[in-house]
Specification:
Structural class: mainly alpha
Helix content: 55-70%
Oligomer: single chain
Shape: globular
Radius of gyration: 21 Å
Amino acid sequence: MLERLQLGVQMIRRWTSQEGAIVVGGRHERFRSCLITALFFCVFVFLLKPEVNNSLAFFDLPDIASDRFWNIVLFAVSVVCIALYIVRRHFDPFFLLMAAALVWIALSTAINGGEFKRLWNDWLPLLAVVGLVGAFVRSNWLELTRAMLAACLLYLLLNLAGIFLDGRIGLQAQNYLFFGVRTITFKVAVPAILCAFLLDVAQERRISALSVFTCLLSIFETFVGYCATTLVAILVFIALRIACESRVMRPKLNIFVYATIDIVACLSIVILRAQNAFAWFIEGVLHRSVTLSGRVGIWDTVFTLLGNGHLALGYGASYTWNTIFVDGKVYMHAHNDLLNLLMTGGIVLTVLVTVFFAVAALQLYRCRSSEYAAILAAAVFCFMIIGVFEVTNCIGSFFLLAMSYGVKDFVGGKSVA
């Protein structure tokens, strides 16, 4: 039995490594690349939206299996991804920090008497995508990028199909799209644009029809399922992509500059409420509320909740949909990345995730003159912008961080045919 397992591991290593491939006139290599991309695609499609029955219900299709079955599949896929990392790579600080964060969330959940469903459904897949990218980024980063692009585009296209089937097209005409409520479209839009831009660089192109299509599709869906934060983030991303063409600008537009801007913005908006000073413009011109669609009330409630001894430990993974009540209405989460971490695992989790982020950011900074690193840093900044008002711990953002940590492995990558 042990010999068969070792043989299987050797076959996986041989098949997925560039050096082990047997190439016959390039045809076998292309077939192998397409097959690996297809396998990654299947994993990403499922991890991005494992609520398969909800997806089927959107188009009035019957369930093909129970929710319990899909939860078991999610757990199994996550375990396989983590196992592949263990087989192919030695443990590195990036993976270990993510694993430590998961363990701490489990402890916090147990201490608070919470349920572990959210831990398995929301956090374990994030460790899985970190493991999958870590296992293959050295040898198959192009396949990973293509697969994530295809998976995200699939959901964007299904969103589009739902919009046209419904028939309501216009500003804020849709509240729910196929992928989910309109405010989470960024979870597939930002990684899709990122991957399209990375492939442009790999093909030595400034722009391609695919990247233009991906940007326009994302902007359209963000317009119809209106989310101002996501729309601003996408437009900033496009502007930064153009700026990344300049070799002079790349080192200046680095990840630590973006992080500083984000920290200042978070403190100004969430803590100091600088938006109140611009009420005349926000309410008088934009006709929006300085409460930011009720987020200010949510943040105030979170500050109160963290002031009763939970600041160090948090409330565990199951705090979502159970803890934050404002005017008799329950809210899913804290609507801010930092506050979400504090609510989930307190200061301990916040420190672990901060170091986790810093480890990836350091790799981006070291490669800051590279166009690949510049684009990855700009994508991270997009999630930072959105993270001031939403929670961005999702498959797309952790895929991005894992690719950022491994950027040194493909920063000098060859162009593709």
